[in-house]
Amino acid sequence: MLNKLLLVLWLAGPAFAKQFPDVDCVILHLKTVRCTWNGHGNLTVNYTFHSWFHNEKARACEMYLTSNRIRNGCIQPYGDISNRFTMFYTRLERDNRTSPKRHDLVKKVKLNPPTNLTVQKGADNVWFYWNQILPSCVQNEVCYRTCYKNWDCFPQTCAVLHGKQNYCINLPSDCSRYELKVRSSLDETCSASDWSDWSDPVIWISNNSTECDQGTGSTFVIIVCVLAPVILILMVVLLLRYERFRIIFIHVVPEQSLIPQDKIEPWLEIPKDLKQSFKASYHDRACPVQEYHHVSQGSV
Ligand SMILES: *[C@@H]1O[C@H](CO)[C@@H](O)[C@H](O)[C@H]1NC(C)=O
Ligand SMILES: *[C@@H]1O[C@H](CO)[C@@H](O)[C@H](O)[C@H]1NC(C)=O
Ligand SMILES: *[C@@H]1O[C@H](CO)[C@@H](O)[C@H](O)[C@H]1NC(C)=O
Ligand SMILES: *[C@@H]1O[C@H](CO)[C@@H](O)[C@H](O)[C@H]1NC(C)=O
């Protein structure tokens, strides 16, 4: 009997000893709070979840997230827009045991990508518009790239805009299409958050592009990648041919004491002064100096 009890305890022991999984939370689009726990991917039991912001009552989970029919997260309402500036508390429970945790979510906000991305052609420019919540609090990063008819796309250009929900490309090139995408985050004045995901790209194709030569893009690539090196080589060849290169050999000057006096002459025509200095017996003329004595005023 005792053996059986011990066996049961031994089997159940690891389950009881098992640590509660860690809970991680993020505010989604200032609308909901998503908390997840995955226990390193090895969840085997369901926990009960409660959460609340400071000065609120504990709220039972309204919508559990599950994976393989095991709860691994919960979506709760976010409530007041300023809630992220207060503390957020969570509690996981199982078998009368609980695991509480305190969260600072002020910077843990993830906005949805901007919506309703649209394009409008102006006289000699193209305007892109989109929608995002809290325009005065949000910064948007815009990236676009230009693709030529044969889908050669050139590196994307990006810009971060504050408090604006539009972007203008001036003088768009005729034979091309433009792909533009936007993402958002709360800016510094509203306690910066991480970037949202990118919006789906919006594409604008020049009206005239059907009349364009198919090769516009590749011609440019050929110019850049093939012609440039050829021109460079040509220039080097021309330089070598027409520039007068003179190679001047310079004697290595032996050490002064190692050369006999008479060997100095044949080298080159060197000035007399310099020649003098090679003489082993040469001494600089001493410069006569006199010590200056201060003569006191009184003795005059
Ligand atoms: C999860 O459990 C399986 C067996 O149940 C084990 O093989 C695996 O190593 C565990 N993974 C982690 C991350 O603990
Ligand atoms: C865990 O909870 C989900 C619903 O939240 C339920 O469908 C599932 O059967 C539960 N699994 C276990 C092992 O209790
Ligand atoms: C949890 O506690 C309640 C009373 O506080 C008790 O009635 C219940 O049996 C306990 N459940 C477990 C699984 O220990
Ligand atoms: C986006 O466009 C849809 C219709 O296409 C409209 O119902 C919705 O209100 C727009 N959303 C915003 C944020 O303007």
Please characterize this protein's 3D structure.
This protein is α+β, with helices and mostly antiparallel strands and 300 residues long. The chain is 17% helix and 33% strand. The chain contains 3 helices and 16 strands. The radius of gyration is 41 Å and the shape is elongated. The termini are far apart. Bound molecules: 2-acetamido-2-deoxy-beta-D-glucopyranose (NAG) (4 copies). The site of one 2-acetamido-2-deoxy-beta-D-glucopyranose (NAG) has 3 residues, from loops.
Contiguous low-pLDDT stretches (5 residues minimum) are 5-17, 245-249, 278-293, 295-300
Largest sheet: 5 strands, mixed
What's the overall geometry? elongated
Strand content: 25-35%
Helix content: 10-25%
Q: Mean of the pLDDT scores?
A: 79
Write the layout of secondary structure elements.
Elements: H1 2-17, E1 24-28, E2 32-36, E3 48-53, E4 59-60, E5 63-67, E6 70-77, E7 87-94, E8 97-104, E9 109-110, E10 115-121, E11 125-131, E12 138-148, E13 157-162, E14 166-170, E15 176-186, E16 202-205, H2 216-242, H3 272-278
Parallel strand pairs: 1-9
Antiparallel strand pairs: 1-2, 2-6, 3-4, 3-7, 5-6, 7-8, 10-11, 11-14, 12-13, 12-15, 15-16
The protein binds 2-acetamido-2-deoxy-beta-D-glucopyranose (NAG) (4 copies).
Which terms would index this structure?
300 residues; alpha+beta; five-stranded mixed beta sheet; 16 strands; elongated; binds 2-acetamido-2-deoxy-beta-D-glucopyranose
Task: Produce a short descriptive summary.
With 300 residues, the chain is an alpha+beta fold.
